[in-house]
TrEMBL record:
Top enzyme class: hydrolase
Role description: Key enzyme involved in DNA replication and DNA repair. Involved in Okazaki fragments processing by cleaving long flaps that escape FEN1: flaps that are longer than 27 nucleotides are coated by replication protein A complex (RPA), leading to recruit DNA2 which cleaves the flap until it is too short to bind RPA and becomes a substrate for FEN1. Also involved in 5'-end resection of DNA during double-strand break (DSB) repair by mediating the cleavage of 5'-ssDNA.
Domain DNA2/NAM7 helicase-like C-terminal: 623-823
A GO molecular-function annotation: ATP hydrolysis activity
One GO BP: replication fork reversal
Protein name: DNA replication ATP-dependent helicase/nuclease
Family: Belongs to the DNA2/NAM7 helicase family.
Cellular component aspect of the GO annotation: chromosome; cytoplasm; nucleus
Reactions that this protein is recorded to catalyse: ATP + H2O = ADP + phosphate + H(+)
InterPro entries tied to this protein: Dna2/JHS1_DEXXQ-box (IPR026851), DNA2/NAM7-like (IPR045055), DNA2/NAM7-like_C (IPR041679), DNA2/NAM7_AAA_11 (IPR041677), DNA_replication_fac_Dna2_N (IPR014808), P-loop_NTPase (IPR027417), PDDEXK-like_dom_sf (IPR011604), SF1_C_Upf1 (IPR047187)
Pfam family, one: Dna2
Residue ranges constituting the DNA2/NAM7 helicase helicase domain according to the UniProt record: 448-537, 546-615
C-alpha cells in the first residue's frame, strides 16, 4: 500500500487510485481462481502460437514476486513481476512442469506496437530466467488487466537473436555517446516526435551537439523548442555531459575489476566484501514498523575471527580487514553468491562492525533452483559477496538534473541565469532596518558572534542566493540553525539538504535540540537514530491526504541531494533551500535540490576537500569544481565569511592561516587561543616521547630521516611500518597519561596505512583517512604522512600535493597536533615545504634516530600487519 500512496502523490488522486483498485481486484481474483485454483481438467487453455497448439495452464507455485534477474553475459537485467512454476499439457503430449515469467500490464495493448514491445520484454525475461535458474526457459505469460486477457509467449531463437542485436546496437550508440559525444540521429518523424514525452530533452541534446532544424526533421517545431539556448548554454551542457561520462566510465572499470577479484584479502577494492557467510547463530529478523516490512540477515567474514581473538604472541588482532571501514549504515548493496556471482537480492546495510555486517532485504533470501524446505541449509552453506550499488544510479540523477537546467520554463530560466550565465545575485539591504521579527531576532540573539550575524543577514536579504564560507571550527552548523529559526519567523518553507545522510542528520539533531519540527525524507536505515522518528516512511498515516497535510503543516523538510528524487516531493515548492557541505558536492548533483526552491543558500568551504572525483581526466577538466566554488569565484560579494573559530588553539590555527587562509582565521575566545592538552597522571617515557608530549608545544613534527623510516609498496598499497609504530607508541603514552581514547584521532592520506595503524594500535581511538575526517575534530590529532624514500627526487604523490587535503589534516586538532614524516621527502612538495618551515618557526621540529627507538624489533612487529 505504501507504494500506491507514493504513486498517488506523484501522479493521481487517492480516489483515482481507489477506483482503479476496486475495478482491478475482482479481475485479479478471478484470474487467480482460473489459473491457480481450478481443477486440472478445467484449467484455461492458452495459445502460445507454437507448433504444439493450445496448452492447458495451471500455476502450481509462485516462486518469486518482483524478482531481480541479472545476466552479465548478455548485458541485461530486469525486474520480473512474477516467476511461476506452471503445469502444462497439450492434446498431443503429457503434462509437464516448467518455469516461466509472468508479466502484468494495466493497459489493453494486445495488438500493435505496444503489444510487440510487451512480447519482447517477456522474451528477454525468459533469457534472464534461463541464466538465473540454469535451465532453458522457452515460454512466458502476459496478462492485460484492462481487457482481462492472458497471452502466451513462445520464444523463438530468431526472436532472441534479433533482440540481442538490437541491444548491441543500443549499447554501441551509448558507447559512442559516452566516448565521442556522438549521439544517434533523430527519427525525423514529426508525428511520432510531437507526441513524445522526451521531445524537449531530445531537441536540446540535438542542438547541443551541432544539430539543426533540418537534421531533426521537425522544422519550426525544433526551433521553437531550442530558441532559448545560446552558445554558452550548449558549451556548458557538452562540458558537463563529457565530465559525467568520464567519471562513469572510470568507475565502471573499477567495478569490473572488483568483480574479477577473488576475495577481500587479495584486493584493495573498497566497494565489495567477499568470503562472507551467514551467521549460523542468528536467525533472520523481520522488522515491521508502520509501512516498513524488511528482513534482516547478519553476515560474517569466513576468514575473520571475532574481535576478542588474539594472536599467539599476545598482540591484538589486526583489523585491517574489518568491515566497518569499507561500508556504512544506509549503503545500498547487492548480495551475490561466490563463486559464480549469481545476483540474489538488493538490500541496505543496517548495522556494521569490525567482524559483521547486517543487511536489510525486502523479502526473505532464496537461491534459485532450491526447494523452500531446504532453503535455510543452502543459504548457510553458501559463500556470499556484497557490493555497493548506488554509484551508477547517481549518474542518471546527474544527467537528469543537468538537462532540467536547460528546459524552457521559468524555474529553469532563473537557475540558468545564475548558474550558467553567472548573473550577479541580488540583495535587498533595506529590510535590515525594518520591523521584521527575523531581523530583530538576529540582532538580539546573544549566542551569535558578529560574523554569524552578518551571515544570517546575508541569507535574509538575498533575493537569489547567498554563500556562507564556513572555515574550520567557525560554527557554521550553529549559524544554520539560527538562520532556520529566523526564516521560520518569516513563515518561510525550508528545504535542508547535503550530499551525505550524516551531514543532513547532524544539522537536524541540533534543530531538534532547539525544538524545531521537521520531516526527514529518505531510507530509515540510513538516518541517524536520534531523528529516525521524523522519517515520513515510518509515520503511521492512512491516506494521501494525511501525508500532504503533514508536508504542508511542517515548514522544514530534510533530504539528501540524491534523495530529492523521492515522489513525495513531486510538485512541492520551498521558499529557501539550504545546502550544507556544498563545497564537496559536484555541480550536477547540487542542481537537484535547487530546482525546488525560490532561492538558495550554499554553505561550505572550498578551501577544504572538493567533490570526490575518481577519474583523473574528469578531475583535470574541472569536475571537482563545485557550484559553491564557481559562484564564489564569480561573485565574491555574495559570500559571508565566518572568521571566528572555536576549535584550534592559536599555534595550530597559525599553520592553516599561513598556508591556506591568509590570516583570515582568528580564535573566537581567549580560552580557545590558550587551550592545551591536560594530563591527569605522569608516566615514565623516553626523552623523545617526553618532548612530543610537552603540553606547552601544541605543534610537533617528528622527523624520521635519521632512522630512516622508508615506505613500503605492497601490491600498490603504500605503508610505512615505522611511522605506524611511532604513532602507536605516542598513542599508548597519551592514554597512559590520562587522555581518553575518544579524544584522540589518527589520520593518514592512505587507506593501507590506516589499516596498518589499526593493527598496531590497541587503544580505542578513531583511525581514518584524511578524507573521512572532514567535519570531525579531536583534542589530539596524530598524522602519518607515509611517504619516505632513499631518493626523494623520484617521489611524487597527488594525495600529499593536494592542498585541500593538507588543509583538512591541519585543522582537525583542538589542542595538540603531532605529525610524523620524512622532511627530506615531504619537502619536495612545495606546500609541505612551507608547512615544515612554519613548524620550525614554531620550534616544533623533533628529529628521532635509531637510538631513540627499538627499530628492528618494531619493524618486524609492524610487518605482521601489512
Amino acid at each position: 500500500m505504501w507504494r500506491w500512496r507514493i504513486l498517488s502523490i506523484a501522479l493521481l488522486s487517492e480516489n483515482d487510485i481507489w477506483r482503479t483498485l476496486v475495478e482491478a481486484i475482482p479481475k485479479l481474483l478471478n484470474w487467480i481462481s482460473s489459473f491457480r485454483d481450478s481443477q486440472d481438467s478445467k484449467s484455461p487453455s492458452i495459445d502460445f502460437k507454437c507448433a504444439e497448439g493450445l496448452k492447458k495452464i495451471k500455476i502450481s507455485e509462485v516462486i518469486d514476486i518482483e524478482e531481480m534477474a541479472w545476466a552479465p553475459k548478455y548485458g541485461l537485467k530486469g525486474m520480473i513481476d512474477a516467476s511461476v512454476r506452471v503445469r502444462t499439457n497439450t492434446n498431443s503430449s503429457k503434462a509437464s512442469e516448467i518455469i516461466m515469467p509472468l508479466e502484468f500490464k494495466t493497459g489493453k495493448g494486445t495488438s500493435g506496437q505496444t503489444a510487440m514491445e510487451h512480447s519482447a520484454q517477456v522474451m528477454l525475461y525468459t533469457l534472464l530466467m534461463s541464466e538465473r535458474y540454469m535451465m532453458n526457459v522457452e515460454y512466458g505469460l502476459l496478462y492485460y488487466l484492462q481487457t482481462d486477457q492472458t497471452q502466451g509467449i513462445c520464444v523463438r531463437r530468431s526472436d532472441l537473436i534479433g533482440l540481442i542485436m538490437r541491444r548491441n546496437e543500443l549499447a554501441n550508440d551509448l558507447f559512442k555517446a559516452s566516448t565521442n559525444q556522438q549521439l544517434p540521429p533523430m527519427l525525423q518523424s514529426p508525428n511520432m516526435c510531437r507526441n513524445c514525452r522526451h521531445l524537449s530533452v531530445c531537441t536540446i541534446y540535438h542542438k547541443a551537439y551541432g544539430g539543426n532544424a533540418e537534421g531533426s526533421g521537425l522544422g519550426d517545431v525544433f526551433d521553437s523548442m531550442v530558441s532559448h539556448l545560446t552558445t554558452v548554454h550548449t558549451v556548458f551542457l557538452q562540458k558537463w555531459e563529457r565530465l559525467i561520462d568520464l567519471e562513469a566510465k572510470h568507475l565502471e572499470v573499477l567495478k569490473k575489476e572488483s568483480w574479477c577479484a577473488d576475495n577481500l584479502r587479495d584486493n584493495h577494492h573498497p566497494v565489495c566484501l567477499s568470503s562472507l557467510v551467514l551467521d549460523a547463530s542468528d536467525k533472520p529478523s523481520q522488522k515491521k514498523s508502520c509501512r516498513v516490512n524488511r528482513f534482516v540477515y547478519r553476515f560474517l567474514h569466513r576468514d575473520l575471527p571475532l574481535l576478542d581473538a588474539e594472536h599467539a604472541n599476545g598482540d591484538s588482532l589486526s583489523s585491517s580487514s574489518s568491515l566497518e571501514h569499507m561500508f556504512k549504515n544506509g549503503d545500498y548493496v547487492i548480495l551475490s553468491t561466490e563463486p559464480g556471482h549469481l545476483r540474489v537480492a538488493n538490500g541496505v546495510i543496517v548495522d556494521i562492525g569490525n567482524s559483521h555486517v547486517s543487511v536489510s532485504f525486502s523479502k526473505r533470501l532464496r537461491l534459485p533452483g532450491h526447494s523452500t524446505g531446504s532453503m535455510a541449509e543452502y543459504l548457510h552453506q553458501q559463500s556470499w559477496r556484497i557490493d555497493k550499488d548506488e554509484v551508477m544510479a547517481s549518474f542518471a540523477i546527474m544527467r537528469y538534473n543537468l538537462i532540467q537546467l536547460f528546459l524552457q520554463n521559468e524555474n529553469s530560466l532563473r537557475l540558468r541565469k545564475m548558474i550558467v550565465d553567472l548573473e550577479m545575485p541580488r540583495f535587498d539591504s533595506s529590510c535590515i532596518f525594518s520591523q521584521d521579527p527575523a531581523i530583530s531576532y538576529v540582532w538580539s540573539e546573544k549566542s551569535l558572534n558578529d560574523d554569524q550575524r552578518r551571515a544570517i543577514l546575508k541569507i535574509l536579504t538575498a533575493k537569489d542566493y547567498a554563500l556562507i564560507l564556513g572555515m574550520p571550527g567557525t560554527g557554521k552548523t550553529s549559524t544554520m540553525v539560527h538562520a532556520v529559526k529566523a526564516l521560520l519567523m518569516r513563515g518561510a518553507s525550508i528545504l535542508l539538504t547535503s550530499y551525505t545522510n550524516s551531514a543532513v542528520d547532524n544539522l537536524l539533531i541540533k534543530l531538534k535540540a532547539q525544538g524545531i519540527d521537521f520531516i526527514r525524507i529518505g531510507r530509515y536505515e540510513a538516518v541517524h537514530e536520534e531523528v529516525q522518528e521524523t522519517c515520513l516512511s515510518l509515520m503511521d498515516m492512512e491516506s494521501t491526504r494525511e501525508i500532504k497535510e503533514k508536508l504542508d503543516k511542517i515548514n522544514v523538510v530534510a533530504v539528501t541531494c540524491l534523495g530529492i528524487t523521492s515522489p513525495l516531493l513531486t510538485n512541492k515548492r520551498f521558499d529557501v533551500c539550504i545546502m550544507d557541505e556544498a563545497g564537496q558536492i559536484t555541480l550536477p548533483v547540487s542542481l537537484g535540490p535547487l530546482m525546488f526552491a525560490s532561492k538558495f543558500v550554499l554553505v561550505g568551504d572550498h578551501y577544504q576537500l572538493p567533490p570526490l572525483v575518481q577519474s583523473p581526466e574528469a578531475k583535470e577538466n574541472g569536475m571537482d569544481v563545485s557550484l559553491f566554488c564557481r559562484l564564489s569565484e564569480a561573485h565574491p560579494q555574495a559570500i559571508a565569511t565566518l572568521h571566528s573559530q572555536y576549535r584550534m588553539c592559536a599555534a595550530i590555527m597559525e599553520l592553516s592561516n599561513a598556508l591556506i587562509y591568509g590570516n583570515r582565521l582568528r580564535c573566537g575566545s581567549i580560552e580557545v587561543e590558550n587551550a592545551e592538552l591536560k594530563y591527569s597522571c605522569s608516566t615514565s617515557a623516553p626523552a623523545w616521547l617526553l618532548e612530543v608530549l610537552n603540553p606547552n608545544q601544541p605543534v610537533i613534527f617528528i622527523n624520521t630521516d635519521s632512522l630512516p623510516a622508508y615506505e613500503t609498496n605492497d601490491r600498490k598499497a603504500l605503508n610505512n611500518p615505522i611511522e605506524a609504530y611511532i604513532i602507536a607508541e605516542v598513542t599508548k603514552t597519551l592514554v597512559l597519561r590520562g587522555i581518553e581514547g575518544q579524544d584522540i584521532g589518527i589520520i593518514t592520506p592512505y587507506n593501507s596505512q590506516a589499516n596498518l595503524i589499526r593493527g598496531v594500535v590497541s587503544e580505542p581511538v578513531e583511525i581514518h583517512t584524511i578524507d573521512k575526517y572532514q567535519g570531525r575534530d579531536k583534542d589530539c590529532i596524530l598524522v602519518s604522512f607515509v611517504r619516505s624514500c632513499e631518493n626523494p627526487r623520484n617521489n611524487t604523490s597527488s594525495l600529499l600535493g593536494d592542498w585541500h587535503r593538507i588543509n583538512v589534516a591541519l585543522t582537525r586538532a583542538k589542542k595538540k597536533l603531532i605529525m610524523v614524516g620524512s622532511c627530506a621527502t615531504l619537502s619536495k612538495v612545495p606546500l609541505l615545504k612551507l608547512l615544515i618551515d612554519k613548524v620550525e618557526e614554531l620550534s616544533g621540529m623533533l628529529a628521532v634516530s635509531k637510538k631513540d627507538d627499538n627499530y628492528q624489533l618494531q619493524l618486524k612487529r609492524c610487518s605482521q600487519f601489512i
